[in-house]
Amino acid sequence: MRLWPDLLFANGREVSGHIVSIADGRITAVQPPSPADATAASDVVRLPGKALLPGTVNAHCHTFQSLLRGLGDDLDFMAWRDRVLYPYSTRLDREGIYLGAAFAFAEMLLHGATTCVDFFYLQDNGNENAEAVIRAARDVGIRLVLARAMYDWDGAPARYRETPADAARRVAELIRAHTGDALVTVQPAPHSPHGASPAMIRAGWEVAEEANTKFHIHAAEGQYEGQRTLAEHGATPIRLLDKLGVLGPRMIGVHCVWLDDEELGLMADRGAGLAYCPSSNMILGDGITRITEMKALGILIGLGTDGGCTNNRLSVFEEMRMASLLQKVRHLDGTRLPAEQAFAMGTVDGGRLLGLPAGDIAPGMLADLVAVDLEHPSLHPRTHLLKNVVYAMSHQAVTDVWVHGRPVVRGQRLATLDQAGLMERVRALTASWRPA
Fold first, then answer.
1. Number of CB atoms found within 10 A of residue 245's CB
2. Which of 183, 203, 209, 281 lies closest to 244 in space, CA to CA?
3. Do the Cβ atoms of 403 and 141 come closer than 8 Å?
4. Using an 8 Å Cβ cutoff, are 345 and 317 in contact?
5. 167, 152 in Cβ contact below 8 A?
6. C-alpha triplet 352, 353, 359: angle, nearest 5°
7. Alpha carbon of 339 to those of 104, 114, 289, 324, 343: distances in Å?
8. Is the predicted pLDDT of residue 38 greater than 70, yes or no?
9. Which residues pair with 53 in a beta bridge?
10. Phi, psi angles (nearest 5°) of residue 262
């Protein structure tokens, strides 16, 4: 298959008059059309009036939480957790977990996100629920990184909790079960320094070492976590992770809002990365991560939406805008974190963070692509298209999406399953739920 848009973004640059060739889920060439292409080439999909963008990479989400949207708005983190997350998550059986994942994945694709990290922790002492999430990703058609959580804090619901030995064994089994899968990657994810004991965190890191994967962990999301970790372990979250020997190139820290200069230096020196969720940090009142300082130190940063009930929108294009604007207002300087950097964080840098060749339009990269309507009002006037994409573009401009070269959105509708039927199932499941 070959896609022929009016223009495309390759390596962050606008290129016109080129065709993108795709085979076996990868981009094989980006080049000008031949005379035959302009006449009768049967494998060319013409995209007149469209721009082709790399699919965005959602570096952190909890898909089942999309079913909780609207239940815990305007609450702080603790009230949201105890009055909404914990009680409502216990209502979800395996099919509810599947439905929440399919619902979230569908919204992401319609907003141009082609890869999602689902940091998943409703384990029920096994991997069957995680397999339901994987089944949902296959059915909807998104690329999935299943960050299989490891959780042993005794204050959490029982279905979240496992022993370090059981969690490590199950994560390793899930990784082996999906090794070589073109669309599914499994990586260990100790929940956080407050949700996972030091033994659990080490167990997750050891699985990552053995399987040669990344591993994910929430860290320093709110001020409460630093205070609690300091009281319980004598160190703030990043310092604790460093003492445990897990702060390094494998680690993807999620949030990392409350870090001092020394902790920023530790992340940079050890090669740890960041999954940054600006909208979630705002809606929960957590604070603003020091993105510009991190970038200056060379820390690799991707963008995440977090869960659908702490954002409440699953659009990485939106997170690009929020990331940039927050740094401008934090520094009182409109030049900070320009659109080009924010776009890279939501695309190619997110792919690099996860160890995936995703987020750019170039030979060898995964064929995860988004077409946008150049005539949509949010992309006009056409003075600087990339800046318009970051600061102005409506999700309604996204018309078509391909994942691994497969069309998964056509004409702003899912091409993989019955979108109306999916929404009816969501309505039926949540009809009796009420805000906290």
1. 12
2. 203
3. yes
4. no
5. yes
6. 45
7. 26, 20, 17, 7, 6
8. no
9. 370
10. -65, -40
What are the Cα distances from residue 191, in Å, to 5, 71, 324? 42, 23, 27
- Other beta carbons within 10 angstroms of residue 316's beta carbon come to 29
Give CA–CA dist 164/244, Å, rounded: 15
**What is the identity of the amino acid at 112?**
G
Question: 69, 430 in Cβ contact below 8 A?
Answer: no
The bridge status of strand 184-190 relative to strand 215-219 is: unpaired
**Closest alpha carbon to 291 in 315, 269, 320, 316:** 320
Confidence of residue 39 (pLDDT cuts 50, 70, 90): low
Closest by Cα among 58, 44, 49 to 115: 58
Residue 360: closest CA among 9, 36, 44:
9
Whether the Cβ atoms of residue 27 and residue 361 lie closer than 8 Å to each other: yes
Residue 409 near residue 415 (C-beta atoms within 8 A): yes
The candidate with the shortest Cα–Cα distance to 107, out of 65, 54, 77, is 65
Answer yes or no: is pLDDT of 139 > 90: yes
Supply the pLDDT for residue 11. Answer: 85
Whether this prediction's pTM lies above 0.90 is answered by yes
pLDDT tens, 209-232? 999 999 999 999 999 889 999 999
Encoded tokens for 324: 């940039």
Query: Cα 402 vs. chain centroid, distance in angstroms?
Result: 17
